[in-house]
Amino acid sequence: YAILTEGTWPSWKGDPREGIQKIMQAAHMDRDQYQLGRTKIFIKAPESLFQLEELRERRFDGFARVIQRAFRKYFAQRQRQKQREEAAAIVFGKKQRRSYSINRAFMGDYIGLDHKPELQSLVG
Hints:
- The chain is mostly helical.
- The protein is 61% helix and 5% strand.
- The protein has helices at 16-26, 46-103, 117-123; strands at 34-36, 41-43.
- Residues 1-57 form the Myosin motor domain.
């Protein structure tokens, strides 16, 4: 349950009793709802335990959301970069083909109209 407070998470360097009291204060539990033993804490009402469990689950859920958001952001950036590179390659390729076809010299009759009178009659 150390995850419930900033002071006790990720590690508590102090007296365990003080750490327990900080956790219980963060959970808004009165002193009469729990009792400290030598090595354990005794929670008197089951509702108090359920409250602690719910707070703990919410914290874990928050951490999971942070991790998911970071992964989704990383994945989206990677996908966007990949798409940009693919688009740039396509555009570059088209420019290269266009510039090559513009500067290409006309070599003459490509379909051989001089040797095919039936095609020449169609063209005129």
